[in-house]
Amino acid sequence: MRLLYVGCILWMCMTGPVQAQVLQGRVTDAETQEPLAGATLFIPALQAGTATDADGLYRLSVKRSGTYRVVISFVGYQTLSETITVAEDPVTLDVVLLHTTLEAPAITITAKAQASDILSTPQAVSVLEGRELDMHRGTTAFDALGETAGVRLLRTGPGIAKPMVRGLTSQRVLVIQNGIRQEGQQWGDEHAPELDAFDVDRIEVVKGPASLLYGSDALGGVIQASSGDLFDRNRPLEGEVAIQGLSNTRQGAGNVQLGGATRSLFYEGSLSLRRAGNVSTPRRLIPNTALEEINGAVRLGRAFSWGRVLGEYQHFNAKLGLFEPEEALEGGDRFDIAQPFQRVSHDRTKLQLNLPVGLNRLEWVNTVQQNRRKEFEDEEEEGALQKQAALQAETPALFLRLTTVTSDARFHHRPLGRLFGTIGLSGFYQRNETLAEENLIPGARTINGAAYVFEELSLPALTLSGGLRLDTRALDVNANEDLGVEAQTRHYRAFSGALGMAWQPVTGLSVAVNGGRAWRAPVLIELFGNGVHEGTIRYERGDPTLESENNLTLESTVRWLTSHFYVEVSGYVNTIDNYIFPRRTEATDPGSGFSIYQYEQAEARLWGGEVRMDYHPHTLEWVHLHLSGDVTRTRNLDTDTPLPFSPPPRLRAELELEQKQIGPAEQVSFRIGPTFMAEQTRIDPTETPTDGYTLWNAALSGTLATGGLTITPILAVDNIFDTAYISHLSRFKPFDVLDPGRNVRFEVQVQF
């Protein structure tokens, strides 16, 4: 009742009569003074914008007087951010944009409660979209992130790629899809997000703690995968067909997407299929690493005079082979998925409402998700017939089901002078069930509730932002005799917060500083796990005495953008209390032969930095040079040793040759360059060191327009020289299994 009362007071204070004001002006080229037709003006606080006409003129209706940040962008020009005050009389803002051959992300949707230009964002952010994303698309939705500074991929075969941000992975990196937490990774740190690679049009990475807006678990950062704005469609029928092939695994994949709009109704549907064989290394095939996928999505939206409603259903279904060290591949079908294997399916239903309330905006999102994970395993020889019968009846040895219901309400209030922000309430109910004979974790129910506030002060050359969040959680654990777990209830309560600033002393230069605090409660596998975990290739034991993790991070980012040069340098220090990690013991499980890993806690510190540079020489319009790198250092402060799975330093260089047109082909781009991976000798005592290596990659793409179709072929080669190497972040590393060899990727997209 108290929260309801406070909400009503805020509602009455922030609503009121709406009187439209006018922002108008002209956008021109800085050198030629020619008008720029189609330039976009966007006010993040209002989620409102417009575009210029043929004469470069624009006129935007603003519903209430106030001070706003306006983002002006146009393809091929440097994005500009201006702070303006709208009064009763029309306000004129004439904008002059500088031409640039570089592309830096103009808008970030994840780092703050409302969309913002990247130069006024206090945290380090990386964005992949458009052709950049398409040219790096692989088997999983996050394969394209493998070369992003500060981001690594923790791999278990071709179909499982777990993002690692600044040395943190698993539950410490929160995955968001279309604004909603992806709930399906609670059973272990090898479980990858269940996302369709074809259903991702944009990936945004916020590095550093981000629990303020998205809840617990974001100690390392947030990765948001977006499927595009359904309400951008403006024709009755449009679509895309994509076909993809990968040589290394003999993979074939295809996707069909259809959608359109009729008056106020918007609709979209997609279906994708994928089949891949065993991974090939320079030494041999890796047995039982094949996979099969079938995924689909349906979205339906309606625009009303009082707001927008969006409904969405997504289905992910995969069958994955599980590698076992003692196996040897002796001929046979390369695409055969033998025992043990997993069947993973994930269903998600979403209902979202966006309601203008005067100049305020209410965003309400509700989702229901269910993740089902079944493992089919080998048994003793004398039980082979019984096992075969069980497999035919689709009876799994392990069956885990996770059902999650979430509800998030965000009230984006009108600007109060130069201050604007968001007040939010968030809650979820989660039920975990163990439904087969094998018990890895007990059943449990989780209830979580949270309230938070995020505010931003926009000054002419300075943006200050910050907020506070309170989470409270109850974990009800079911009794389980096999695991020796008694029925119990655990309670957690924690504060999250952030405070940051972005200063722009001159046009194109931004200096940002951010501090944040986040938290994470231990999950069931860490508390009560006791059994063979086929996915991680180890026997895992939990510790019921584990406490919540809490971290404190300080980071700084400098960005400088000119017409021919962009550089971004970031540095950070992240201290974590009660850091949870699995430590390899000297013992071996006699049944499986796997090493036994015990979950422990320690005080930990991670520090490092990233650099990104893009350069376009003045005299060579068709040449681009790209350079990026990162370094992460970790320390277990209790033992004065590095943490397990610490990534080695990395440097990536790339030469890009680009032409607007070559014959009938447009936007032709060729990229080639090496990635240098340093050796990793700073290791946990239970690990082994890893040698350094160099990989060369190349990609070629272009666009053909014919007969109303837009055809985009993409040809790429990963590991051109078939280099033999072992990644320090590979789960197959303890078994001396090489990483994938040469891989030729070919994809054709046809839009109509």
Mean pLDDT: 86
CATH superfamily of the largest domain: TonB-dependent receptor, beta-barrel domain
> Beta-strand percentage?
over 45%
Question: Would you identify the regions where 5 or more consecutive residues have pLDDT less than 50?
Answer: 1-18, 380-387
Could you characterize the architecture of this molecule?
With 752 residues, the protein is mostly beta strands. The chain has two domains: 20-99, Carboxypeptidase-like, regulatory domain (Immunoglobulin-like, Sandwich); 221-751, Maltoporin, Chain A (Beta Barrel). The chain has five helices and 43 strands. The protein has a 22-stranded antiparallel barrel. Strands 11-16-17-14-15 form a five-stranded mixed sheet. Residues 1-18 and 380-387 have low confidence and may be disordered.
